[in-house]
Structures are given as structure tokens and as C-alpha cells.
């Protein structure tokens, strides 16, 4: 039993529209069934097509062959134009503190009830078959099947967005996607068109600096924050509106990779984040997030030093604290990737009564785009009937026909108002969704941008200045890396100008790394403010000292000590880590005569896949590995990525002595098991300047 969702409760049942007969239920398995065609005709031979004689031509009459191949030919649907690569999981939402003073939405007022949900994480720029670890924003989309209709919180792992107005979205995406003439680079912002566009759009500066930070290379999907980004409204019984921003805070804290690791993981395991999610759920180590809200009134918002309707601005948690009112637990990996993760269709316009939109112009544009894209991606306005998309509460309307209609509506009445059929659905003023009756200014029609959206530098400056020194070095190095891939000199120069407005130290570091002169900074459209620092935007600062969710690699070989392997395994697992045995071969004979099965051969499991490494090998093995570059890289990379290393005498003598590895407090001999376990909970960032020329 993974949850206490009452699956008999009609509100929680799968797609009642589809499921009446049971056959198309989402998790239907047909044990021991006979293979049939789509029409239910049993198939006697699934290996040979129908031919005129054993060596004769195939016959057109072979309806089994034609049906099978035709289906196969149509197995692909258009991938998402953005966020194409993703992975998801089922789980539940549980409210721990009622928000009834603020909203009538049952999902935010009924505590203790577990409501089913589906969450999909994604990268933005790459194709469906790209890697998991590019430098990119991560999508964080949650579909909660509430008893009052589906609620989709379609957010990202960063609290702000690149642009202020939806009309700029196609240009932003065209600029970051592979350049249209050459078809590359894949899943990368480090190219001319992206930096050309962003350097001409100062509003992108805030999201850009987040993109250059460690937040853009998460260690695990389980270690990312999620944000609804825009301000929404909560509406209470009295019809009073309160603004709200939604937050997801990971139980495992925020943790990230180093850039060099991310690059190497792309080759070693392109499915790195997806595999981690799958393995954690399979192991019963269910990923969990706290659900939080920032609540504020219109009057409070008017005092903020920025406009909260501008999606390029975050509301510092130090200014409006995040109130934790619930949690999300992911406890079931999809049964079928296509049917669920691929066909799930999120729309920010999916909201239950009691929650409403704000006038954020980016949100307003999104309300159109998602429904529209689902029509082309899933091919029919009936996509809402797919099991993964259908509400789990009763639903009824007069929409009919279209491609792939799965419901069979009865009766002659498919319109409203009507007086012929009392069984048909009717509108309900009491239960129904109603928009907040906001008093609007007498605006003048025009293509305008509010002057209150004009400050593009104060928040990126706050972000940079709030980081630890190691994080600032990562940001400067990321800018240098990305701009180093830009061939067009005037684009690099223009970008350096913006960096001066963000922070002169940052601009200098990047210019020095690129060997360029600093230009004149562009004139800001609004005065740049020195806002108070916000530690809540750090990454390393928010990384907890824990082994929960982390993975340790233990290198063993012929003759290794079973006893010592056992000690490290036990200590690591007791602290919450998973352990993988790595060896030169798939199996090895240990000192006590037993054989150990390695999870990975060293050539296939570089140390970038582990958070800390241990080496327990005999001299003969060490001597051999000392001539193998994959083994040398194993230690060198672990050291360069600031990880804890526990070494045996043979490793020290034959391998470490050949490498530029200094014995600091994170490089410890085998007998210091406790010290290693403590170190493995974090990284020694102070080592980084010794091993890498950071900008
Ligand atoms: Fe978007 C997908 C998040 C702005 C248009 N978006 C998509 C997904 C996420 C986001 C997480 C993937 C959902 C899934 O897993 O299926 N998008 C955001 C956030 C934004 C944002 C947090 C700004 C705050 N998006 C945005 C704008 C537009 C779009 C301004 C268009 C005007 N987004 C789309 C889309 C996608 C999409 C084209 C592609 C696939 C899909 O919708 O289902 O409609």
C-alpha cells in the first residue's frame, strides 16, 4: 500500500468516462491473454507474414501484417515544442494546514486527505532524445486531480522567467533551439543566436543569471525546488482576493552538479536524472516536497520595490516568507512512458474554483498557448479523455464528436439550456468557477509595457550578491564558458555591458576570462537598486549535510577484503546512501573465497556518477589499474569535483601517487570510515580553486 488514497471513492477513480467497461483502464494488465489483432481476432503466427509459397511474394491480403505495420508507422506523435525531454511520476498531495481564510478551493482547505497527482520534470531546450544534464531550466509541472477538477501548476525549478510578455516566447525559443540552418547545437544555450537575443532583451538578465548558476544543473530531480512563478489569486467565501505564489521545497534540499561533472555525465549516462528518479521510487525511497505559499495583498504588493505581475521578478522569501501548508510525495513510476509521461497535457488554465489568475501578461499568453499546443501534439480536442489527463472527479458537458471520441454520450440532447432531458448536466452558480470581479482601470488600448516592469538589473544583482564565493565563481565561469562559444564579437561585448549593470566584479571576471575589454554599460531604463541579500536563492548554501539520496561507489577487485567492503557498505547505507560496487570486471573473487558481483565495470561507471568514492583493491589490481585511463580518471575526477575519497594503501602507492591529488581532509585512509561518511555528505568546495581555473 503506497498511499491511503481511497481508490473506491469515485472522486479518485480513473477516468470514469472511459472506464465503465474496465477494458481501457489505465493500469489494465492482461495476464496470459492470447495475442490478438486490434479487432480481437486471435493471431496464430506472429513471426511470418502471409506468402505465396515459402519463397514467394507477400500477399496484400495479410491484414495482420498490415494492421501491425500501420500501427507501428504511426507510433510517434509530435514532441513538445519545448520541454520535450521529461520524466514523471504518480503520487499524492496532502494539505497539512488549511487556507480557508484565503480560498474556497477544497484542495487548499481540506487537510489530511491524499489527492492523486502526476508530476512531470523536464529540460526545456533539448529534443526528447537529448540528455538529462544540460545547463538549462527544468520544468516542474504538477497535475493534481482534485475533487473539484484538475489543477495544473505548470512551473519551473527557477522562480522567475526570461521574458515579461508572452509575445516574445516564440523568439526566445527559436533563439535557444538548434540554429535552423545547421541543426545544432542540441540542448545548449551556448551559441550565438541565444546570446544575440538575450543581450538585446535586458528583461532576460534575471533568468539568465539563474541559468548560469548551479540551479541549472541539478544533481537530482528530487533535489530541485519548484515554483509556480506567476502571482495567482486565492478567493475566499467572502469573495476576497489574496495574491499567492506557489512553491515546492524538496525534502532532500537543493543540490547541484559541477559543470565539468554535468558534461561528463551527459556521455556516461544521458538518463542520469531519470534513472535516479526511477531507482529511488523502485527502492521505496519516495521523493517528497513541501508545498508552500507566499501570500500577500494588493496593498502589500504596492509597497514591493518591483511589480509582482512581472514574471521576471521573484518575491524574496525574506520579504514574504513561504508558509508551508502541504506536501507532495511521488510513490509510483508510470507503467507506460508513452501513455502517461508523453501524453500528459498540462495547461496553466486548469484551475479549480477558489483559485484565479492574475494579470501577469506572460501568464495571460500561456493561458492560450497550452490548450492550443495539446491540440496539435495529441491530435484532438478529446485529449482530456486520455486516462492520464481525465479528471478523477465526475465530469459532464455537451462537448461532442471530434477525433478519437472515447465517450458514448446517450440521448438526443447535446445542448444547453434544454428542457427535454432532466438527466443532462446543468450549470451551477453555487459550485461553479467564477472569476474575481476585479475593478479594471480605464486603460487605453495599445501595445505597451508597464513602466513598473522597467527595472531589469536590481534582482539579478541581488541574486549574484547573495551567493557564496564558490557559487559566484561558478556563475562567472558559466558566463565565460557560454560566451566563449559565441563567435560574434559584438554579441559578447553587448553582454559584458549588461554584466556591468548587474555587478562590476562579475563583469570583470568574465571579461578577464574571455580576454576582452569591458565596454560602456548600457543606460538602465530604471534606477538600479541595491536590494537586501536573499540567502534563499543560494544553491550550495541550501545543500544539506546528508547522505540521503546520494550514491557511493566502492571500487573492488580480485582479492579485496570482504570485511572492509562490508564496513563501508554498512556505514553508507546506515547514513541513507545507496552503494554501487565497481570493479575492473563484472565479478571478482574476494579474500574470503566468495565472489562479488559488481554493479558496474569501472570503464562504464566513471566517478561522476557517484557523490563519493572508496577504493579497496590489492596491489596487483592497483598496478594494472594504474595503466588504465578510466581508472586514473576515476580518482582524478572525484578529486577535481571536490568529493570525498577513501583509499587503501595499494591505491595510494600505485594510483594516487601518479595523480595531482593532494591529501586534504576529504582524502582519507580506509580505517577512517566515520570521517569518510561525514565528508561524503557534502563537497570540499575550498579544494576547487586548486584544481580549476575559475573565472
Ligand atoms: Fe511553457 C510546456 C513551464 C512560459 C508555451 N512550459 C511547458 C512545460 C513546462 C512549462 C514545465 C512542460 C509541461 C509538461 O511537462 O508537459 N512555461 C513554463 C513556465 C513559463 C512558461 C514556468 C513561464 C513562467 N510557455 C511559456 C510561455 C508560452 C509557453 C510564455 C507561450 C506563450 N509551454 C508552452 C507550450 C508547451 C509548454 C508550447 C510545450 C508543450 C506543452 O506546452 O504542453 O505550450
Question: How would you describe the shape?
Answer: globular
Helix content, binned percent: 25-40%
Q: What ligand molecules are bound, each kind once?
A: CIS-heme D hydroxychlorin gamma-spirolactone
Structural class: alpha/beta
Tally of separate domains: 3
CATH class of the largest domain: Mainly Beta
Radius of gyration from CA coordinates:
28 Å
**What is CATH's topology name of the largest domain?**
Catalase HpII,  Chain A, domain 1
Mean pLDDT: 95
- Based on the coordinates given, report the CATH architecture of the largest domain: Beta Barrel
Strand content: 15-25%
Please give the number of β-strands: 18
Main sheet record? 10 strands, antiparallel
Q: DSSP helix count? A: 20
Low-confidence stretches: 14-25
Annotated CATH homologous superfamily of the largest domain: Catalase core domain
What is this structure, in a nutshell?
With 695 residues, this protein is α/β, with parallel strands linked by helices. Helix content is 27%, strand content 15%.
Amino acid at each position: 500500500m503506497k498511499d491511503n488514497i481511497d481508490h473506491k471513492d469515485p472522486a479518485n477513480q480513473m477516468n470514469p468516462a472511459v472506464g465503465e467497461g474496465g477494458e481501457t483502464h489505465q493500469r489494465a494488465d492482461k495476464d496470459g491473454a492470447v495475442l490478438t489483432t486490434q479487432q480481437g481476432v486471435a493471431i496464430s503466427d506472429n513471426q511470418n507474414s502471409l506468402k505465396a509459397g515459402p519463397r514467394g511474394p507477400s500477399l496484400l491480403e495479410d491484414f495482420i501484417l498490415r494492421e501491425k505495420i500501420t500501427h507501428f508507422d504511426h507510433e510517434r506523435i509530435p514532441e513538445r515544442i519545448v520541454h520535450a525531454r521529461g520524466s514523471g511520476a504518480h503520487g499524492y498531495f496532502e494539505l497539512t494546514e488549511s487556507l480557508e481564510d484565503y480560498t474556497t478551493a477544497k484542495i487548499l482547505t481540506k487537510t489530511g486527505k491524499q489527492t492523486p497527482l502526476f508530476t512531470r520534470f523536464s529540460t526545456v531546450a533539448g529534443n526528447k532524445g537529448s540528455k538529462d544534464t544540460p545547463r538549462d531550466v527544468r520544468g516542474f509541472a504538477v497535475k493534481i486531480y482534485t475533487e473539484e477538477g484538475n489543477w495544473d501548476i505548470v512551473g519551473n525549478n527557477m522562480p522567475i522567467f526570461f521574458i515579461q510578455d508572452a509575445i516574445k516566447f516564440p523568439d526566445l525559443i527559436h533563439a535557444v533551439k538548434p540554429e535552423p540552418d545547421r541543426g545544432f547545437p542540441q540542448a545548449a544555450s551556448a551559441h550565438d543566436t541565444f546570446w544575440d537575443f538575450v543581450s538585446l532583451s535586458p528583461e532576460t538578465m534575471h533568468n539568465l543569471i539563474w541559468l548560469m548558476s548551479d540551479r541549472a544543473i541539478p544533481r537530482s530531480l528530487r533535489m530541485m525546488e519548484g515554483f509556480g512563478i506567476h502571482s495567482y489569486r486565492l478567493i475566499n467565501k467572502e469573495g476576497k482576493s489574496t495574491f499567492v505564489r506557489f512553491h515546492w521545497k524538496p525534502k532532500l534540499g537543493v543540490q547541484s552538479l559541477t559543470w565539468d561533472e554535468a558534461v561528463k555525465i551527459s556521455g556516461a549516462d544521458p538518463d542520469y536524472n531519470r534513472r535516479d528518479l526511477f531507482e529511488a521510487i523502485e527502492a521505496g525511497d519516495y521523493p517528497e516536497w513541501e508545498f508552500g505559499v507566499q501570500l500577500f495583498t494588493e496593498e502589500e504588493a504596492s509597497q514591493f520595490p518591483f511589480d509582482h505581475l512581472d514574471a521576471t521578478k521573484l518575491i524574496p522569501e525574506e520579504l514574504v516568507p513561504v508558509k508551508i501548508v502541504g506536501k507532495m510525495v511521488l510513490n509510483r513510476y508510470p507503467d507506460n512512458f508513452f501513455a502517461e509521461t508523453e501524453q500528459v497535457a498540462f495547461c496553466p488554465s486548469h484551475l479549480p474554483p477558489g483559485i484565479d489568475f492574475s494579470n501577469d501578461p506572460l501568464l495571460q499568453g500561456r493561458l492560450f498557448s497550452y490548450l492550443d499546443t495539446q491540440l496539435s501534439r495529441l491530435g484532438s480536442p478529446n485529449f482530456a479523455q486520455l486516462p492520464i489527463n481525465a479528471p478523477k472527479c465526475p465530469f459532464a458537458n455537451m462537448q461532442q464528436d471530434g477525433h478519437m471520441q472515447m465517450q458514448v454520450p446517450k440521448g438526443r440532447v447535446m445542448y444547453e439550456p434544454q428542457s427535454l432531458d432532466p438527466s443532462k448536466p446543468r450549470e451551477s452558480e453555487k459550485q461553479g468557477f467564477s472569476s474575481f470581479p476585479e475593478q479594471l482601470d480605464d486603460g487605453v488600448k495599445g501595445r505597451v509595457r508597464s513602466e513598473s516592469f522597467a527595472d531589469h538589473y536590481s534582482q539579478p544583482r541581488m541574486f549574484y550578491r547573495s551567493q557564496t564565493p564558490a557559487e559566484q565563481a561558478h556563475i562567472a565561469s558559466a558566463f565565460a564558458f557560454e560566451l566563449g562559444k559565441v563567435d560574434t564579437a559584438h554579441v559578447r561585448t553587448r553582454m559584458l555591458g549588461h554584466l556591468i549593470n548587474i555587478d562590476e566584479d562579475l563583469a570583470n571576471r568574465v571579461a578577464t576570462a574571455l580576454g576582452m575589454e569591458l565596454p560602456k554599460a548600457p543606460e538602465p531604463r530604471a534606477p538600479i537598486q541595491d536590494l537586501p541579500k536573499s540567502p534563499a536563492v543560494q544553491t550550495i548554501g541550501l545543500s544539506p549535510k546528508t547522505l540521503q539520496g546520494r550514491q557511493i561507489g566502492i571500487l573492488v577487485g580480485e582479492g579485496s577484503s570482504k570485511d572492509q567492503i562490508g564496513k563501508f557498505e554498512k556505514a553508507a547505507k546506515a547514513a541513507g546512501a545507496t552503494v554501487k560496487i565497481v570493479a575492473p570486471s563484472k565479478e571478482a573473487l574476494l579474500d574470503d573465497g566468495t565472489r562479488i558481483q559488481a554493479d558496474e565495470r569501472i570503464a562504464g561507471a566513471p566517478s561522476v556518477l557517484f557523490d563519493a568514492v572508496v577504493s579497496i583493491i590489492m596491489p596487483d589490481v592497483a598496478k594494472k589499474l594504474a595503466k588504465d585511463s578510466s581508472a586514473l580518471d576515476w580518482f582524478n575526477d572525484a578529486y577535481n569535483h571536490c568529493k570525498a575519497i577513501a583509499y587503501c594503501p595499494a591505491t595510494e602507492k600505485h594510483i594516487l601517487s601518479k595523480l595531482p591529488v593532494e591529501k586534504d581532509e576529504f582524502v582519507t585512509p580506509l580505517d577512517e570510515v566515520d570521517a569518510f561518511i561525514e565528508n561524503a555528505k557534502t563537497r570540499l568546495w575550498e579544494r576547487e580553486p586548486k584544481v580549476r581555473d575559475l573565472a
